[in-house]
Amino acid sequence: MNKFDFYYWPNIFSHNELIELHDVFNNTYDKNEADSPAEGISKTSIIKISKWHNVKNKLDKLEQLIFATNQLQFGYSLWPQYDIDNLYFNEYSGELKGEYGWHYDGSTNDNHDIKFTTLINASIENYEGGEFNLFLNGPRHIAELDNPGNVIMFKSHIYHKVNPVIAGKRHSITIFHKGPRFI
After folding, report:
1. Backbone phi, then psi, for 94, in 5-degree steps?
2. Which spans in the chain are helix H?
3. How far apart are CA 79 and CA 35, in angstroms?
4. pLDDT tens, residue by residue, 107-161
5. What distance lies between CA 51 and its chain's CA centroid?
6. How many domains are contained in the chain?
7. What angle do CA 23, 177, 7 make, to 5 degrees?
8. Whole-angstrom distance, CA of residue 32 vs CA of residue 21
9. Which of 68, 96, 115, 181 has the highest CB neighbour count under 10 A?
10. Range of the domain at 168
């Protein structure tokens, strides 16, 4: 469903599919690859970075939805995910009061921009807090991402944040969709 500057899909992944995604990230993440959060922004989470080739067979139907939705709703020039592209598995725990402050996703590359950020609520256990917000004429809690298995795609230049998790663990998978630099 189109909601201003984002699009979401409910129930894309079942509980069992989310468990499989957890297993893939836990078994394939690069222990030497470090996250580079937005500068000067509070981010308290555990990040596991894996490559597209490790998860593409589990995310193919989502990638097709993203391309079709872009074509019908947004019209950006997007590149496919390449086998070497990074995907981010985020764990926000109540123990650490996991959060990520207001920021936007961008690229410093001269040849491309990040057009969309896609988030999968990959949580497999209950949690409290951790609400996802977009800044759309003010802060707005995006309830469409509250349920595990739901997915949201939004324009990457929009400020967004994850509120602190109070209890349990909230998991998400982040995918960046790139294309030629905006001019």
Report:
1. -65, -30
2. 15-28, 52-69
3. 22
4. 888 889 999 999 999 999 999 999 999 999 999 999 999 999 999 999 999 999 9
5. 14
6. 1
7. 90
8. 20
9. 115
10. 2-33+40-180
